[in-house]
């Protein structure tokens, strides 16, 4: 990268904004070596303890970011509006320069929201109800193309030469840190991973309590309080060995290529990560994609068994009902933002390693250009993770679950200054803080649900994270 030479356009760019009082940050986008962004995150080490990773292998797009230049946080019921406003103001103060014309060339904010808006305790407190960071570096791999966006605070006194040299030095240092660490990893290549014990902290009493609460939820439904509610549970584990989050993420993306694998850590504290099949929102040129994903059945052990289960899921009125609530709610919510809604007439079956789901993809064109966070505010929570009718079910979730959901089932993702965004619903996820691990899993309850079968469904949904954890012990 020593050959990085910024064109005359950079000098024009500098002269256009350098006396401008509105400028607080400057971002430079340049092509980068086509290297795995997760390897970069791993090789770069912890730095300031703020990291983000995002990949859905089937989309051939991966994104890694590290070090915070600015952080947006908020709590309470106005958190979406507040983050939307804060992000608009922040992004207006970032001046962006790139020789590349690409929708990922720009300033990005990465982070997300907790499920509920009540204040968070314990391990969740570092992430808060809503937090995003403007990273110092963000590496994007889009198919065969890679680029890096580098952001730094702007100081009016900096000359053109100083600023050019700063970027040049930054890139050179970054690249040499990566190559030194690659050398070090080569030496360690043959070391054996010792693994380690995982101690589950789960009891029969917990199973009985959960099943009792699901039975109670069914009773509420038959009494007409609501029609669907999603009840989750957690699995607490203690590990003897240290957990490597990047190793865990590496396992997840390999095993679940059609899921979004994500990881987020703020200020070196707890890490929230997972591999979720559920898209909340993708936004590109005012075009939104989302989906109704609800209704589940296990995978079969043989092709025939699998096909039989698939047919059973397609024809199950209980699963079709659970699914229909989600689709109806999404249609209602999106019709406020768009005049053109497209969705498949029948749900399709999406198959993952351990489970298959009913899925209806939905697409829409936005009536107005909007901050993606304002769209998220409309969409979250869908009845796939909350319930139906939304408010009646939401009030009962905490009473019936008796766990702190934190960011589980919340919107997690990124958006950028080009109004491109991608957010997932953070299910099949967990929180890791030192050797304490907490995984989450839930399922939709309707009147016909069988509590024992729902317990089994949540057990199956834990498997990916449990396997990944075993793999990630150092
Ligand atoms: C809530 C979860 O999953 C949701 C519930 C589903 C169901 O009950 O069929 C299916 C997919 C998700 O919408 C979870 O995995 O934790």
UniProtKB/TrEMBL annotation:
Entry GO MF terms: isochorismate synthase activity
PANTHER family: ISOCHORISMATE SYNTHASE ENTC (PTHR42839)
Pfam family, any one: Chorismate_bind
Swiss-Prot/TrEMBL keywords: Isomerase
SUPFAM superfamilies the UniProt entry points to: ADC synthase (SSF56322)
Organism: Natronogracilivirga saccharolytica
Domain Chorismate-utilising enzyme C-terminal: 209-461
Enzyme Commission no: 5.4.4.2
Record-given protein name: isochorismate synthase
Catalytic activity: chorismate = isochorismate
Keyword Transcription carried by entry: no
Family the UniProt entry places it in: Belongs to the isochorismate synthase family.
Family annotation (InterPro entries): ADC_synthase (IPR005801), Chorismate_C (IPR015890), IsoChor_synthase (IPR004561)
Highest taxon above the source species: Bacteria
